[in-house]
UniProtKB/TrEMBL annotation:
Signal peptide positions on this chain: none
Main localization of the protein described in the UniProt heading: cytoplasm
Matching PANTHER family: EEF1A LYSINE METHYLTRANSFERASE 1 (PTHR13200)
Organism in which the protein naturally occurs: Calcarius ornatus
Subcellular location as annotated: Cytoplasm
Keyword Transferase included in the entry's annotation: yes
GO molecular function, one term: nucleic acid binding
Name of this protein: EFMT1 methyltransferase
Any one of the GO CC terms: cytoplasm
InterPro entries cross-referenced by the UniProt entry: DNA_methylase_N6_adenine_CS, Efm5/EEF1AKMT1, Mlase_EEF1AKMT1/ZCCHC4, SAM-dependent_MTases_sf
Amino acid sequence: EMDDDDDIPQLSSHTLAALQEFYLEQQQREGMKTSQGFNQYSIGSIEEDWQLSQFWYSDETASCLAKEAVLAAGKGGRIACVSAPSVYQKLKEQDGEDFSVCILEYDRRFSVYGEEFIFYDYNHPLDLPENLLPHSFDIVIADPPYLSEECLEKTAETIKYLTKGKILLCTGAVMEEQAAKHLGVKMCKFIPKHSRNLANEFRCYVNYASGLD
């Protein structure tokens, strides 16, 4: 006896599972937006974690640095954010713009960003995925988690590996000499602010003609 279903094309179980997963994710994403009333990339979606020595920039500072990064990267540019999650989140808010961005971060909560997230521990500065090619980013924005020369020196190895040339470093004013020594960057006039006041005076440093002066 003939089976009525024979002439209906069947999706392979693999395709079916993938589709179901896709729809489920989509529903969850939509649900997330409506129930919590925020975009998954907004600052509020991942709170700063003091244990990880994470300090978010103020909204204004994050916007300013994101804008600078886009300009510096140029059309179709690639931007790397090393331990600078609030700048990354600002860049993600400018969806559909002509640039791409990666975040190198110790905080695994950022894995929600999928392939753009690269787990990063400054103690192992070159322990990076193979597909992250040397000198493949138009600009690297970095904010080393600690104000120590050791932390800066190790982060500098990562920055130099990733960048085609341009560097935007955010760190304490006390690090001026070390920043010049390890990265050849100079202090800008622009003063970055944090959403909570930090005890240490914070500054931006660059090695190119930026809009931050």
